[in-house]
């Protein structure tokens, strides 16, 4: 619960603490209630008491502004701290573009009454409202109050038990907190005494300063009214909490706060910002072609009656956000948001419209919110919901047959991220929500939580806005102006001193591994990037190699060369020496370097073919468990010795039958070890470089439940497969240098009434809404299925908040908070209009992976198809008034069948002989672990014609001209032999050269004389001094810049082995085992019209 | 009035049934604690696992006893649960019953509510059978 200073926690809580601490010490990262916290802090007095001293640079601030709560403000000299959200920025510009689902546009008078009675009729008892394979989770009998407002120990951001015993080991390396403070002040020093702060948020609506009186007064009255209208029980509940949570936030008068608008530390962040905006504005240009007038016949009546209903629908929308500066034009602004969106409202007949893919990359739909709110909303790349209009009840959600869920990319590298350093982090007292842009200020001193509706006090410190240096503007604070923000966590958020960055590398050195020659590349990459490993002076590194025995390397300072220690007793693993196996990187850098140089040669004569991966993992776990950190395991074959030994299960002849494949792990060893790792904050990343079957289904568990990631390089060989070598190098480069967060937890909160159903991704679920992430990396995505517990009838807006608490590689404890706000709707049509087809496909893919593991692959495939059929027939029977022939879909879902078909043809779910089991499982791991953007690119790649690039419509970024060829549909009919086509599949780029490709392109871009002289494996374009070459290279590098990793470019000619991969991605075409897009549509139509 | 083997079986079953009721209540509390966020699933599932095997074996013991005592009706009432236990035991994740309640998936809303329902149903069953055994014991003692 809350602040650690809480002296008196209820006895019940303390009893719990006792229970928690008494049970299982190794899994100690349970939610630890406050009493425990306070006791811990009492014990660690020294640690705690250093806090004031640790921010010495803040002291001058006292004199700066004595009247204002002793705060100082550090502004970066960068381009303003505003967290830039390109998509948001584009919405006000083109309101008609994204067809923000406009519920008000419905013909409310005519259709709603008509639709009401018809809805039950749409699902006659015979038509199986619960189809055999049903995605709509049945309304669970969740006790909502239990999952939502956990009464007592909702200390979400605290991890780890009080490892008092662990404390001592930090002592040798210097007092951690002291070091941290040095690091902090060091980074902040250049920013001290900045010029007078500029306007904090360029995007902030211009309005009278709220201190000016009238707007606040205006805001106040409606708020009070809405407070009265709030459901009585919830209010009571909130009051009940107070007894527990009182005594928090004491001493806020004496705190210093400083705002460092520094970058989040992602030195690898790509300049996406610069590139996104023009792209967006280009989307305005020709995202959607002019529509045939025939499709508008359903909309005009709605436009006639839409306006009145709109004002009824959102009576308190504007008032709920007084802090967004209510101007006199507020009402008119909200009305203008309701202008007609014919594109979004039209109904598409998929059988008639061939070209449904927009020529520019698909943009996420904008929620139908007031633009002031939308402007503050979270970037959809970070936080996205499958339905941008949340259905009011579970019944409505079930009727729509669409999955409700969130897709998150919480730790994405951001170019600009506001970072707040403050000793009190303002949070709701009952549900512990962080203050966010969507809370409402009742008056200057009180704010109402937008998740549990509790009214909280504004702490004194929060009244002063250090950006404007004005007192009494809590709603102007960066916390209330940014949906994505990072807090520097004070010591209450630590249960042990922040851990040092620890990296342990575990190499397979059996004969098979030496044969592949991977050690050379990996050691070389490590040598090159040793200085770039994220970390500080405390960074630790260690190495273990194994074949049938396990080898440790002592890297003690003073040794002339690393000392190898061999443990041959793999049944009872022990660590041969307590120290010097994990060493400080800075102190032992020479030894580490010499080890990395000699390691590839040490085992060249090895004839040992066995692999004792299990014992090696146990040893590595033992080595790391005192600190936690990252373990990178390189494995090249099936483990055959000791615990965790596996047997080959794949039978090549049975690949065709979808039933007989082994997707479930064959042993629980890796699962259990992963749990142990998770408890000790160790994450395991698995690099599998294997030619034969290695049972990734079992091995992958070690990464999956310890929040690691899996990399797979089938048939890796240093000579025979240079493409994989290059891929490994590039991915290692990214892997080693990317940002990393240690000992992290992520909690997802949502407005009362919604509840979390299932999580997808790599983590361990520790509680109904808490994920334990020993490591968090910027390339990991997560998905969450939600359900509507209570009815949301008395609220217009719901919010979701994800809070990620982690230790940065610099040893700082940080909290990254994202908040998303969405409207609630009451009719089925509005739910459909607000559907986000990419997010839905992404969530369905995640659910299908689960389904194929728990049931079977064919079940999962059926479920995917049924998801389309069910939702479209729900639309047809419940929303469409006149039953036209054809396959009618709402505009928002026009790509739904296409994406699902693409999923069916994706490696995870495809049938046919060409998918090896490990590759399939790797694809499934990727589905679970990738952020949505890349998942969609791997599922449905973008195809461009690149042999005739022109500067027409090109982007211009930093004096570079980047051509923008239109996206083509993935069908061979769009290919031609006299062209060259680039396919962007996320992690790979494929450039297919037609046989009769123009000579000009061959010579000017590829730098070859004729088609025949294109080399068999070519992965780079020569840098030629021709305009064509410049354009192509500019386009490709622009595509690469948009993602943090480095996609390899394959140049494919007719005989290339990669050609099959290229053609496989042509999802609209028929293959031997899968339907073409048109056939698929016909199949769906048949089922829908049944 | 005689002390038959059947009467002995019912007396023993009565005592053990009380233990089973206790186990079921313990399960209910455990899952409720998980739901309300009091406990870490790993902490919670380990003791739950410890109870799984005793519960299954006690219940199997009943069935064997009633089979020996030729109490066919009682046996018939218990057989469905016996089969359910067998099914549950052999459908556990790979390495046997240790992960009958897998901490990795138990937090899934569906799994958690399934486990809770299972525990409630078992509690009801054991309670009813407790009184049934009591009745049978008395009638066995009285009738013979």
Throw out a few tags for this protein:
heterodimer; A: about 1100 residues; alpha+beta; 10-stranded mixed sheet; about 15% strand; globular; B: about 140 residues; mainly alpha; Cornichon_conserved (chain B); transmembrane (chain B)
What would your notes on this structure say?
The complex is a heterodimer of chains A (1090) and B (144). Chain A is α+β, with helices and mostly antiparallel strands and 1090 residues long. Helix content of chain A is 33%, strand content 16%. Chain A is built from 36 helices and 36 strands. In chain A, strands 1, 2, 5, 7, 13, 22, 24, 25, 27 and 28 form a 10-stranded mixed beta sheet that branches. In chain A, a hairpin with a 2-residue loop joins strand 31 and strand 32. In chain A, helix 21 (518-529) packs parallel to helix 26, helix 24 runs parallel beside helix 25 (696-704) and helix 28 runs parallel beside helix 30 (896-904). The two termini of chain A are 54 Å apart. Chain B is mainly alpha-helical. Chain B is 78% helix and 0% strand. Chain B contains 4 helices and no strands. Chain B has helices at residues 5-35, 41-68, 72-90, 109-143. The longest helix of chain B has 35 residues, at 109-143. At the A-B interface, helix 1, helix 24, strand 23 and strand 24 of A face helix 1, helix 2 and helix 4 of B.
